[in-house]
Amino acid sequence: MQACYNIPMIGRFLIIFFLLLPLAPASARDTAETPLEYDLRVSFDVPSSKILGTARIQIPREQELKLFTNHLKIISVAFKGAPFAFREKGKSLILSLPAEGELEIRYEGIFKGDRSSLDPDNLRFPSAIDKRGLWLTGTWYPRPESTARYQLQALLPKGYEAVSEAEEVDKETRRDETLFSFRFPHPLESLNLIATDRYFIGKAEYRDVEIFTYFFENNRPLSANYLDRTRKYLQLYEGLLGRYPYKRFAVVENFLPTGYAMPTFTLLGSGVIRLPFIVETSLGHEILHQWFGSLVFSDYAGGNWTEGLTTYLADHFYEEEKGSGWEYRKKILIDYQSYVNAGNDFPLQEFQSRRDGATEAVGYGKGLLFFHMLRKWTGENHFFPALRTFIEENRFRRASWADLERAFEKQSGKDLGPFFNRWVRGKGVLDLEFEPGIRINPPAGPYHIVMSVRQRGLSRPFILPVSFYTSRGKTQKHFPIGEEKTKLEVVLEDPPFKAVIDEDYDLARKLTPREIPPVAAMLLGDKQTLAIRPVSQEERYAGVIAGLQQRGVILRDSRGVSADDLKNSSALFLGSGHPLVAQWFADFPEDAGFSLAVKKNPWNPEKVIGLVRAKSREEADAAFPKIRHYGKYSRIAFNSGNNILKEVEPSERGITRKLFDEPMAVEIAKMKSLPEILDQAGERKIIYLGESHDQFSHHLMQLEVIKELHRRGKRMAIGMEMFQQPFQKALDDYIAGRIDERELLKRSEYFRRWGFDFALYRPILRFAREKKIPVVALNAPKEITEKVAKGGLDVLTAEEKGKIPSAMDFADEGYKERLRKTFEEHKSFGVRNLDFFIQAQILWDEAMAEAIDAFLKGNPERQMVVLAGSGHVAFGSGIPKRCFRRNGFSYSVTLNEGPMEKNSADFVLFPGSVSFEGSPKLMIMLKEERDGLTVSEISEESVSRKAGMQEGDIILALDEQPVLNLEDVRLELAFRKKGEQIRVKVRREESSGEKKEITLQVTL
């Protein structure tokens, strides 16, 4: 019997079958063993759940025979017609038989379907005899260790129909009983019997094969479709593997929720048969098991190869036919990476049956990928001929991985020892990376590209597919790989802008973080997942908590988790209200009865974080047991246990290496003027204008946009990164005319909190004041962002956390990658921790997005022009998408001389250079010390040195205005012009130690 779990990605038998375990494998035996001849006759007392049986076994020679009996009661044993002594050992019958002859065993058993009758060779659904019918598998008769050829006679109540392994079935109806005779001329590892009085039988033919359905009344209308699809699957697999091995095949409905393949029939639960995808996919999987598992047995001592091969040629095969094979294989790799780790990994040859996510990921998933790679390694023209050879040489025998190896070597002529050794007998999968550095020889003709690929860890042989993308399209090359490091050389007519390793997922390999979407399987499979208790209403999640604890998940109190904890673990938050949760899941609606959202862990891209929310205990208990069947999704939701949402976040395809910048072109004839751009951009609710802070031309373009919108009668506000939110009142007073520029700069602490010349922004602010256009301070307080940059969000006090956005999104990997590059550039400025730097930058963006959102919701009649650094708006990643997440308002992004890359902006302006006479400078370096503001450095060309200033002088006043710090100096200079004279009072210590005050006349 084959227990089948690997069902198509849209549903899988696991929807119903997760409670089942396959039959435990029989012990390894000589694959050339001679099968016993076994005649079994049984009758039943259904109301008493009782079986009465007589087994007659032909013994070919002197031997010790072991028969599994479990809970059967042995009534008598006779050999050659005479009583024979026997002994029982554990749950087995041991017989020392002296010669050839017939052994007869009479027995009885009670099968109520309870756990007391469960044995290691049976299912979690134990054998049963009751009013529903008969479900007899495993040890319901004295079962030999070896294979046997069975003749079965079953006497059943009148009206019953029965199914067992058979090529011929006779039915003799008596007064109150029906005698079924099943003949199967081939060896079997075990015998099964299914019977009930509820069957309606449908029949069709394919060649000389009889096809049957045994369905209950409510599924009877499905019979015709199942018969038709069975014909098509038989035709498909005969074309690939050779003739169907038996004379009949039946699709049998079971009153238990099972899904199994036995020789000549498959047994499907009632609910399974009704699922629409089963007939299109899973039925073919069961039929294929007639070749692999039923015709050729698996030698479990050498590993179960049948599930990987059957899944490859059934579930995967159907997806490949639809053009979705690469997606199926990627899902297999995501599952492998989610469930398999160094502690639970094992070689393929040790797989026997599915017990959990890790064993399924190895036996089914890695097994599938092994056969896919073997097909590439040996060649397409050798794959199916080798399988046909394997089948013919191992009909009704136990076959091992070694038998597969011999068949493929025989067909391909290749030594496959190294390939099988590494992939079947070794653990793990490939871990590939592009080596740093690439050489592209200057073309005197075609482009000659040289790069290297490295296998981290154990080296394995495989065929490496690499796709090269040029402006003309894609070229794919295949490279045989066998060493730790391999040099790849390729000649192309055009320059490739990127190379991609294994974009179709033809290899069993580790995925990069960018290839893996955050999915539920990563939560369920991570051995270090933390489950965070609800902040309130814990009773609502009691069932969820119990289920997680059964899986070994670590339960933590809601107050005991920090960002540091998340660096090494995945985490599942239960219920809303967690301080961290609102930052990451603010965009996930709460209108479902039960929901699970999963995102990348912001502190460790190889881990995930999840949020479970439920409206009631009933909703949680109805949905939570089902989430394991939705492991490939990032977001799922249920109402009353019924799925209403399933989504997967996008991820990269293949391991990508950028080679050239992809060439971009602009059609000059379609270039637009600023007013033409504003015909489109000006209608949006928010207009983002990116800048380089020190480029006056960028600020002039911003001013022109503001003026043009004002001319068009737009009611707008101006949001400025340059001012911090606590100082909004100063901006309001300035725009209203209640204070002047000097007072604005003092009260907003502009020169302490922003490092750029105020003259750059003066024209914009003066226009806003003149036209009474509100200006909104967007930035977060510098004290908070600097504190986060040094120590992370966790170092903030409760009061400080109350001043930052409650909703922050850390999931944009593209933005984080750009921040990593910026981080490398800022190391010289004292930025040391990448995680903290990213936290601070995202806090900065979220704070500005929140300020924009708050203003527009409070002033719905206005639109806003946002002035911010290009890094905060390019690609929409910084502020725009975060603001859109809050309100859905339309927006446009315009950059000044920004990156000419796809999706970087809606428009890019080219303002050209503009001469700028900014605020004058004293041309000295100042240092704030205990004694005062000290001149630490002064150049020979400095206007201050020419006026007589010296290193060590302490600045006391500028034109009688006392100076205490750098901000005071910058404030005074902001209202001066070049060429003006300014009196600078300094304190100087003479060589004698005397201190005196001197006033210097400096020409700026």
What would you note in describing this structure?
- With 1004 residues, the chain is an alpha+beta fold.
- The protein folds into 6 domains: 35-288, Immunoglobulin-like (Sandwich); 297-410, Orthogonal Bundle (Neutral Protease, domain 2); 432-513, Immunoglobulin-like; 523-561 and 570-647, Chitobiase, domain 2 (2-Layer Sandwich), CATH 3.30.379; 668-909, Rossmann fold; 924-1003, Pdz3 Domain, CATH 2.30.42.
- The strands form 10 sheets. It has an 8-stranded mixed beta sheet, with no helix packed on it. The protein has a 7-stranded mixed beta sheet with strand order 33-32-34-36-35-37-38.
- Strand 15 and strand 16 (177-183) form a beta hairpin.
- The longest helix is centred in the C-terminal third of the chain and has 25 residues, at 834-858.
Indicate the topology.
Blueprint (H helix, E strand, L loop, with lengths): L1 E2 L10 H4 L18 E10 L4 E10 L3 E6 L4 E7 L2 E2 L3 E3 L2 E6 L3 E10 L17 E3 L2 E4 L6 E2 L3 E10 L3 E4 L3 E6 L3 E7 L9 E4 L3 E7 L2 E7 L7 H19 L6 E7 L4 E4 L2 E5 H5 L3 H11 L8 E2 L7 H8 L1 H7 L3 H15 L17 H22 L1 H14 L4 E2 L1 H12 L4 H7 L8 E3 L4 E3 L5 E9 L6 E9 L2 E9 L3 E8 L5 E4 L18 H6 L4 E3 L9 H9 L3 E3 L6 H4 L4 E4 L6 H4 L9 E7 L7 E7 L2 H7 L11 E5 L2 E6 L7 E4 L15 H8 L4 E6 L4 H16 L4 E9 L3 H8 L5 H7 L2 H4 L8 H10 L3 E5 L2 H10 L6 H4 L11 H14 L7 H25 L4 E7 L10 H8 L3 E6 L10 E3 L14 E6 L2 E7 L4 H4 L7 E5 L2 E2 L3 H8 L7 E9 L5 E9 L1
